[in-house]
Every structure is written in structure tokens, then in C-alpha cells.
Request: fold
Amino acid sequence: MSHNVLDYTVILLLFSCSQKAIEAALQARQWNKAIQILDLQEPSESVNYYKQIAQHYAGTHEYDLAKQFFIKADMAQEAVDMYIKVDRYSYSHTCSTHNTHEIFT
Reply:
């Protein structure tokens, strides 16, 4: 087997293991562990997981954390909608009048 094929196989195996570890952490509701693993991944591979984490934190009324993960999931509008839903209009108004990304980061 050539080195390129072997390298690619190792990369696929590591990716698969990482995904399984993330999914296991999320299923076990070990949010911090999932976040630690996600922080080591490529952002494009983490978007759906960040959305799930953001929804969890929104559901537990940890809005600042939810906002942070909505942004990582490239879902700034969801953060604005969350703030409107919980009557934090000052946050949502600020978001609608300025660049959302700049407000949240």
C-alpha cells in the first residue's frame, strides 16, 4: 500500500473516531467533553454539532453560551430569535442594527 493511501486511511479512521466520540459525548449529555473534542475539529465538520449544543444551552436558559454556539454554527439569526423569544429585546435590537458577527464575538 502506498504512503498516500495509508495516510488517507489513517485520516479517515481518526475522523470516524472523532465523530463517534462527539456523538457519544452528546448522547451522554457531556456537553463540555463534546465541546473539547469539537474544538479540535475543522469548523466545517462541527457546524451541526454546535447547533445541537446551542439548542441545549438555549433550553437550559444559558443564553450567553447558546449565543456563542449559534455563532460557531453560523446561525447568528437563531441567536437573535432566541433573545427575542426570551424578551431580551436590547440584544436583538442591537443585533438587527449592527453587524451580527461583530456584536457576538
User: Anything to note?
Assistant: The first helix runs from residue 3 to 27.
